[in-house]
Amino acid sequence: MRIALFVTCLADTVFPEAAKATVRLLERLGHEVVFPAEQTCCGQMHVNTGYQREALPLIRRHVRTFDPYDVIVAPSGSCVGSVRHQHPLVARRAGDDRLAGRVEDVAARTYELSELLVDVLGVTDVGAYYPHRVTYHPTCHSLRMLRVGDRPLRLLRAVRGLDLVELPDAEQCCGFGGTFAVKNADTSTAMLADKMRHVLSTRADVCTASDASCLMHLGGGLSRLRTGVRTVHLAEILAATERSAITGERTAVRP
Amino acid sequence: MTHTFLGMPSTAPPGVGHLRGTEPFPSAARRSLADPQLRRNLGHATATIRARSAGMIAEVPDWQQLREAGRAIKTDVMARLPELLEQLEARVTEAGAVVHWAADATEANRIVTDLVRATGSERVIKVKSMVTQEIGLNEALVAAGIAPVETDLAELIVQLGDDRPSHILVPAIHRNRAEIREIFLRAMPGVDPGLTDEPAALAAAARNYLRQTFLTTKVAVSGANFAVAQTGTLAVVESEGNGRMCLTLPETLITVMGIEKVVPTWQDLEVFLQLLPRASTGERMNPYTSMWTGVTPGDGPQAFHLVLLDNGRSAVLADPTGRQALHCIRCSACLNVCPVYERTGGHAYGSVYPGPIGAVLSPQLTGVADNASLPYASSLCGACYDACPVKINIPELLVQLRDQAPHPRAEAAAMAAAAYTMDHPRLYEAAQRAVRLSRLAGRRGCALPPPLDGWTASRDLPDPPAQTFRQWWAGR
Ligand code: SF4
After folding, report:
1. Where are the domains of chain A?
2. What is the spatial distance between Cα B309 and Cα B102, in angstroms, rounded to a whole number?
3. Best mutation site among B388, B394, B396 for ligand 1, i.e. most ligand atoms within 8 A of its Cβ?
4. CATH, range A133-247
5. How many Å apart are CA B87 and CA A106, to the nearest integer?
6. Would the CB atoms of A220 and B462 count as touching at under 8 Å?
7. Chain B: nearest CA to A76, how far in angstroms?
8. Where are chain B's structural domains?
9. Which residues form the Cysteine-rich domain (chain A) (predicted)?
10. A250 near B CB under 8 A
């Protein structure tokens, strides 16, 4: 299958490993990945901070860029959520019904990675090998906007060598929330503290999720406290194999 | 309808009532976050209610259909609010009561104060109500020499403690029993000085005090959970029975009701009476549901006044998306599931309406400029939307209100520049290189300049990657 990668600005700029892992994984499963170079950002940061007018050109760009592709994937629940739920809203509020129709059309072909794997490609065992103790944090937008359900867990359970431990109070927000983490840094940090406490209680070596943004927040806190727990994007775990473990290919977002 | 409902709807006036805080959310939140007792009480109370409510909801196989029915009824009500209110006014008047229209808090306070004065009573007993908190009725009554006595146990604790409510349903959620004992000893008339902090002893002390007050006060003031337009029937739901005492014992009853509380028929009421207790207290049915229609000779209050309050509601109604906030049945489920509320408590929101619903209702009632920090007091995690028994899409409203909020100039300039850059891939690539260079210039974990320093106060920054994804892709 020919799959267009919607890399997301954050993965492109700060967490390319998550995006590279998505490419390696899909190619290993026998698919062709293309990267439309005209893409930049879906505009979520603007919409969530209160700048819908500024987000409009970015939404138009996103639609133009991805319209030619039948299947589009992003390694981010939050950015897919933005495309599905925010793009049509912003287009309608701007009075552009034609754009709203086009964004809905593109959104219907856009999948978060675990959705693509389980629903479209029909795989749960992707042939990965990752010999670590791992806990999974379901990010709010994957959980409540996309309703990915247990798809990520099914994928993780099929990874060889992986010791999956349940995260207590998993469904509570980690406190990232984009602009929230900066404008309400104290409250965000209080939420982060509780999330870290739960992660540490699992004695996992790795905390994974399907959003680089939440992992940046959670990983930043875990690193600040020198907990030794790494945050690793789900795509990187699924892309890891016996071979990558032996050749020492980088599989973690942060050491 | 009177002239007050014609013309451009206006927002709730400043200087009266409690819809505006004195400081922005982030700084108010900082204080609450540093209070370990508050954090413990809130964490415990919200987790307990959450679990109880989840259990009760799980029992109802058609919960999602019920929510959808609730949403549909409220949408219909908002679409024909004037007509339903006129019907309500006609039925209530036919049943022997007097209907008053109040455009805002000041008018409502004046109406109620005048009505109490006319009875000659110097004291009123009050049923727990959000709307009288919203308009600051107690302060207005006190200023007129009338003593209001709150009869809901938690509301009484707040009143005696000279405090503000911090939760819609459990106004004293921020207090523990030791603090309550102290408040009672200090402020409750005729309290036994040997009072212990046993919950039963505390409740008995309150009961003693309130019994006296019930039997000797001739006027009561209440809010209303619902009003049925079909028959002109008002409804109050509660747990303690103190509300029913107020609604039945006095000679005069004055009910203040937000105009959005009307429902068309008894069949519609049935939906909300199923939704409300399970979502709010986690009960199958609330212990007391009091309903009354006008005046019944020889039974209950012989004079009944209904004050219909706007106070910014028509302005909210004018916004087709924003008006969802008027669907709220004040169950407080959104507060109990909110990770922000759970940590900051209600006072940080400034307004009497805290938590997620407060963050979307208060700024709309006052005009968003007067509560500009509230729409940002959320991580947009969406737990409130899932919990709301009438399916108010609170995250969507938050995002819309952020768009309408006044923006700091520096932020607006930066966001405009970022949007321009992101719409020009060449500039975008240059900016990506700049991110990398600026990060390489500093050490990992070093502080960012304001306004981004909130990030680095508690979190390290990731290491800058050797190349961006698109550089890697181009070089493949
Ligand atoms: S917004 Fe919904 S969940 Fe929150 S108090 Fe109102 S009805 Fe309840």
Report:
1. 2-120, 133-247
2. 5
3. B388
4. 3.40.50
5. 47
6. yes
7. 15
8. 28-313, 416-474
9. 3-82, 134-218
10. no
**Residue B455 confidence (pLDDT) above 90:** no
Q: What is the pLDDT of residues A132-150, one digit of tens each?
A: 999 999 999 999 999 999 9
Which of A188, A218, A222 should one mutate to test binding to chain B, selecting the residue with the greatest count of B CBs within 10 A?
A188
Query: Cβ separation of A14 and B376 shorter than 8 Å?
Result: no
Concatenated DSSP letters for B290-310?
A: EEEES-BTTBS-SEEEEEEE-
- Distance, CA of A223 to CA of A208 (rounded, Å): 15
User: Under a CB-based contact definition with an 8 Å cutoff, are residues B275 and B328 in contact?
Assistant: no
A181 in B contact zone (CB under 8 Å): yes
CB A162 within 8 A of CB A156: yes
0.90 surpassed by complex ipTM: yes
End-to-end, the C-alpha distance of chain A in Å comes to 34
Residue B446: which pLDDT band, with cuts at 50, 70 and 90? low
- Would you tell me how many other CB atoms lie within 10 Å of the CB of residue A161? 12
Of A47, A187, A224, the CB nearest to B33: A187
Do residue B422 and residue A19 have CB atoms under 8 angstroms apart?
no
Yes or no: say if B272 and B323 are a contact pair by the CB < 8 Å rule.
no
**What are the E-state strand segments in B230-296?**
233-238, 252-258, 262-263, 288-293
Question: Which H/E stretch holds residue B278?
Answer: helix B266-280
Q: What is the CATH number of domain B28-313?
A: 3.40.50.10420
Please tell me the distance between residue B360's alpha carbon and the centre of ligand 1 in angstroms.
Answer: 11
pLDDT at B37: 87
Measured distance CA(A115)–CA(A117) in Å, rounded: 6
A192 contacts in chain B (CB < 8 Å): 458-459
DSSP A250: -
Strand A206-209 with A230-233, pairing: parallel
- B425·A38 Cβ contact <8 A: yes
Nearest to B379 among A176, A221, A224 (CB): A176
Phi, psi values for residue B2, rounded to 5°? -85, 175
Residue B391 Cα: closest atom of ligand 1: 2
DSSP A160: B
Does the Cβ of B330 fall within 6 Å of ligand 1?
Answer: yes
Cα separation of the two ends of chain B: 73
Provide the whole-model pTM.
0.94
CB atoms within 10 A of CB A243: 9
Map residue B418 onto helix, strand or coil: helix
Describe the strand order of the beta sheet including B288-293 as a list of residue ranges.
B262-263, B226-228, B233-238, B288-293
* Chain B touched by A183 (CB under 8 Å): yes
Query: CB of B439 within 8 A of CB of A202?
Result: no
The CA angle A87-A93-A96, to the nearest 5 degrees, is 75
- Say if CB B225 and CB B263 are below 8 A apart: no
Q: Which residue from B70, B36, B469 is spatially nearest to B273, judged by alpha carbons?
A: B70
User: Which residue of chain A is at minimal alpha-carbon distance from B447?
Assistant: A224
A191 within 8 A of A173, measured Cβ to Cβ: yes
Residue B317, class by beta-carbon neighbours within 10 Å (0-12 exposed, 13-18 middle, 19+ buried)? buried
From CA B99, how far away is CA B437, in angstroms rounded? 69
DSSP B314-337: HHHHTSTTGGGGGG-----HHHHH
Per-residue pLDDT of B331-372, as tens digits, reads 999 999 999 999 999 999 999 999 999 999 999 999 999 999
